[in-house]
Amino acid sequence: MGRTIHILNIEHDLAIANNNSNYIPPRVCAEMDQDLGTLPLWYGSDHEITLTTEHISPKIAEALSMNQLSMNPAEYIPIADDSFQTWGWDKAIEKKIRSISPDSNLPDSDIIRKLSHRRLSIELLNEHAKTHGFPQELLPEEVYSIERIKDITEQRKSLLKAPLSGSGRGLWWGLSGYDFNVERWSKRTLQQQHSVIVEPIWEKTADYAIEFECKGGAVKFVGFSHFLADPAGVYRCNLLLSDEAIERKLAQEIGKNTIQEATEISTKFIQRQIAPYYNGYLGIDMLTGIYKGQMVLNPGVEINLRMTMGIVARLFYNKYVKEGKSGTFKTVHFKYDGEMISHVNEMETIYPLQIENHKITRGYLILTAYNQHTRYGIEVTID
Questions:
Q1: For a 10 Å CB count at each end of the chain, is N or C smaller?
Q2: Is 74's pLDDT higher than 60?
């Protein structure tokens, strides 16, 4: 029986925008792929294995406390009917997998790229506007000319987005009207991707996401996630909470009926527009914000047609954290050799890990392997 082999390609958003099978990611992305390579062990099924730059050894398993959490990692031994799962599908990762397994049945990267375009999130928001009254004036617009960008940005402060981008990348904040920087960024993006997405800047209160899995033409609701981003929109961490706790928080902000309606509309949209062509996880970023003195939900900030940190956090919580407990799931980055080791040692001393019945009840856990030279990691802390 074949197994699922996970490959971490954090640079996916950049690779799919580049659309070249020979794409070489920036050094920082290559470092993240290396350092975070064991992350899929926490969201893959017990029978699945991970392909990384080094084999998963008992030593790494012990370092990750996986035995306590009832995990069973295996080393990579290629067999004929292995299947592959990636962080995201693009031409560059397709070429990499073909070099490992030439006969693998892989998704059509051109279809994935088309479905990853921000145009699809605009279509989703239009569905919400028609069905439950999402304000028309808050809808993003796909713009094809510098003249139209000038018209919009001279009238209001605007957020400009590259059509193929994600996780806080490919954004330009037009806070000062149509100035030199807006013009330069817009012309470059129009040249590279042929359009720019322009939308109003929200008075944001909180970031959320709704997570799904598509498989065999059907869509399944996975849960909600609640995350924090910096002022530029770059992901920082997820709050580890039960699905019910996040839903209650959302309901307090914008009402239970709004949440239910938004979930139903998004589910039907994915079933119609994405599920027939895509197998895998996807997340829809949402936010709550103030509009004309009222709290409003933006249920389609962007559609991430790939694995996301929010999905990993949701799956991790469901599988390994005791129900009702809370904490954080976040990326960490260090500049110098040895800093990761010092940080982990300190956190493990301050927040010793406590596990009951294979569930974390309190404490600190580093989810990714590390050594003297490691720069990036994923860690969780349970209160």
A1: N
A2: no
